[in-house]
Write a structure and sequence with these properties.
By secondary structure, this protein is mainly beta. 6% of the residues lie in helices and 48% in strands. The longest helix has 7 residues.
Length: 191
């Protein structure tokens, strides 16, 4: 697949098809087959970087990756906002973070990195790899990695969804961090 790469710190959303989708937007019967690479304080998705609109019957097959902390990455959507709805969609690409330093608010998921909205009848099959090589991380720092979602807010809902990708996370703090526990635990009950 082709590659979409952004390295400028001021760019905060990048997607294989659309960077930012607003509440009035609808994406349907669409797909992206590009590799998305981002760096620093961005939201990146195989199809959409940040969505507050509707996505239906769409998919992404390209890999999504970053080499710095402070990112929110998803195989289909980086961040799904409270007004965002996703239905009958899927992602098959791998999602990977490999950073030499840590920082706050880093979430990656095979389908969505951070979910505030409603997701139904969707799935992810790509592997998820979460590696931050920084032994100085503070206990309060928030991280999350999941086969389907990196984390989910209380406003979010995920139903009739599943993920089959392997999750690889280095360092013990990933499994016990704030945000990891509430997201993946809630999502598993929907599989």
């Amino acid at each position: 697949p082709e590659e979409v790469a952004l390295a400028a710190a001021w760019v905060w959303v990048v997607g294989g098809l659309v960077g930012q989708q607003y509440a009035s937007g609808t994406i349907s019967y669409s797909h992206a087959s590009v590799q998305v690479s981002t760096y620093g304080f961005t939201r990146g998705g195989g199809l959409v970087g940040d969505s507050a609109g509707a996505i239906q019957r769409s998919y992404a097959t390209g890999d999504v990756g970053a080499n710095s902390y402070g990112v929110i990455l998803g195989g289909l959507v980086g961040q799904n906002e409270a007004a965002g709805t996703i239905a009958q969609s899927y992602a098959t690409g791998a999602v990977a973070l490999n950073s030499s330093t840590g920082g706050n608010s880093t979430y990656i998921g095979g389908f969505v990195g951070y979910n505030f909205g409603a997701i139904t009848q969707s799935y992810a099959t790509g592997a998820v790899s979460f590696i931050i090589n920084d032994e100085t991380l503070e206990a309060f720092v928030q991280y999350g990695a999941g086969a389907f979602a990196g984390t989910q807010q209380t406003t979010g809902s995920i139903s009739e969804a599943y993920a089959t990708g392997l999750v690889h996370a280095e360092n013990d703090w990933v499994a016990s961090c704030p945000g990891c526990g509430n997201g993946p635990t809630a999502i598993r009950t929907g599989f």
